[in-house]
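Severity: low
Component: inverse-folding endpoint
Summary: output formatting inconsistent between runs
Steps to reproduce: submit the following structure tokens with default settings.
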């Protein structure tokens, strides 16, 4: 582990405002995370965001973003989506992983939204997570973007980066979520995912993170980092 006493002595106090400001500058040139990019292109309803998140599960943004656009151009509302057959949805989303179960899940969400919620998904995490295939990550991210809910979405990048900083000490994404909810200022709850997904993909990568050129090296405790670049 790189967080030895001597390394600690060289570090500045960790200041989340400074860290996120520097990362905001750094990720400006990287592609936006898929769901934020979709919202920027006008697909910002809760239904559209939830569909996009389901499509992004275990699929790279480079694949899930164009696939989401293909599907949402064909059917962007629950009513329009419910009129498609699951097989038609599957054909449209073929490039993502698990197209068959994802098509069935999206169709089921559309049908239930029409039947139970008059065609409009409520901004309610419990309702969203009652749908098959929707976990806390997708529910929180969709609610944050579409409903302005202050919710932290912890995916593998947010989990890895915040633990390397030493900002939280947690073994699982669920524990990281609880720790961040206790510590992170609310103003950053939605933005954190938007910043740390591209930062985790390009700078604080899973193996050989680019610590030597990282904008927050002076504050990051580099917990668990064995082979920095
Ligand atoms: S790249 Fe290195 S210095 Fe930067 S946040 Fe990740 S572990 Fe810390």
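Observed output (run 2 of 3):
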């Amino acid at each position: 582990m790189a967080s030895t006493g001597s390394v600690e002595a060289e570090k500045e106090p960790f200041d989340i405002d400074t860290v996120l400001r520097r990362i905001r500058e750094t990720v400006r040139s990287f592609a936006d995370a898929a769901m934020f990019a979709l919202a920027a292109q006008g697909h910002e309803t809760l239904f559209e965001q939830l569909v996009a998140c389901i499509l992004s599960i275990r699929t790279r943004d480079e694949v899930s973003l164009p696939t989401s656009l293909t599907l949402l151009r064909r059917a962007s509302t629950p009513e329009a989506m419910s009129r498609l057959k699951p097989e038609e949805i599957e054909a449209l989303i073929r490039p993502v992983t698990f197209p068959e179960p994802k098509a069935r899940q999206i169709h089921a969400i559309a049908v239930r939204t029409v039947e139970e919620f008059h065609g409009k998904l409520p901004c309610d995490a419990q309702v969203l997570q009652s749908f098959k295939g929707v976990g806390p990550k997708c529910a929180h991210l969709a609610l944050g973007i579409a409903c302005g809910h202050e919710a932290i979405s912890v995916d593998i990048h947010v989990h890895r980066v915040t633990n390397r900083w030493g900002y939280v000490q947690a073994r699982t994404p669920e524990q990281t979520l609880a720790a961040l909810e206790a510590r992170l200022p609310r103003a950053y709850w939605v933005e954190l995912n938007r910043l740390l997904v591209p930062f985790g993909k390009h700078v604080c990568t899973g193996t050989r993170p680019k610590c030597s050129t990282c904008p927050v090296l002076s504050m990051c405790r580099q917990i668990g980092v064995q082979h920095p670049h």
